[in-house]
Fold this sequence. Notes:
Layout: E1 4-7, E2 10-12, E3 18-24, E4 33-39, E5 46-52, E6 57-59, E7 67-72, E8 77-82, E9 91-99, E10 102-105, E11 109-113
Parallel strand pairs: 2-11
Antiparallel strand pairs: 1-3, 3-8, 4-5, 4-9, 5-6, 7-8, 9-10, 9-11
Amino acid sequence: QLQLVESGGGLVQPGGSLRLSCAASDSIFSIRDMAWYRQPPGKQRELVATVTKGGSTNYADSVKGRFTIFRDNPKNTVYLQMYSLKPEDTAVYYCNADWYGITVWGQGTQVTVSS
């Protein structure tokens, strides 16, 4: 089964930047949609951004203009570039893929935005 491993989280000051990576254990070339979700403390998991096989993207209103999702199919990796981070972006960030009808999640990476 496909495995997803996130990395790149950490502590950053408001206004700072981070790049999250999601490395897949198998080819992602045939996976139509890949996504990043996040779960803030005490809240439900929410969709942050999606990227299709062809590179089309979609974003939650709260991150539009600040976050960019992109995929590198030859490297089997999906990225989330985050700029102008705010305290409300603090959350565990998860990578997600629909792999032949099976929903696959990574283990998550913590992002904390605080001064």
